[in-house]
Specification:
alpha+beta; 5 helices; PadR family transcriptional regulator; Tscrpt_reg_PadR_N; WH-like_DNA-bd_sf; WH_DNA-bd_sf
């Protein structure tokens, strides 16, 4: 793949967004824009989420008790910082196990293992 400019299909990314968001929040609590930028940075710009994609995920995770949002003030602005809860850590472990199974099965089918 060297030198080829590949883009990840939106459908492929769609199935991984919750795992990506939970993984980022496991590292540290973050506010939305910070999460978008860190994810982009960590993935060398392969994973870029729009606010319209991220915030519905965060709101769903919050309503299901997997993340907690805490308001704070930074630079004179109110920010909602998202924290992973114990329930969120459990979901993250389940999503990682699901991903490992998927990746291993896909690799066997396409002949990578």
């Amino acid at each position: 793949m060297g030198g080829v400019n590949l883009k990840i299909s939106k459908e492929l990314l769609k199935g991984s967004t919750t795992l990506l968001v939970l993984s980022m929040l496991e590292q540290q609590p973050m506010y939305g824009y910070q999460l978008i930028k860190r994810l982009e940075q960590r993935s060398s710009s392969v994973f870029t989420l729009k606010e319209g994609t991220l915030y519905p995920i965060l709101h769903t995770l919050e309503s299901e008790g997997q993340v907690e949002a805490i308001w704070s003030e930074a630079d004179g602005r109110q920010r909602k910082t998202y924290h992973l809860t114990d329930k969120g850590r459990k979901l993250l472990q389940e999503k990682k196990a699901e991903w490992d199974l998927f990746r291993g099965s896909l690799d066997r089918v396409i002949g990578e293992v």
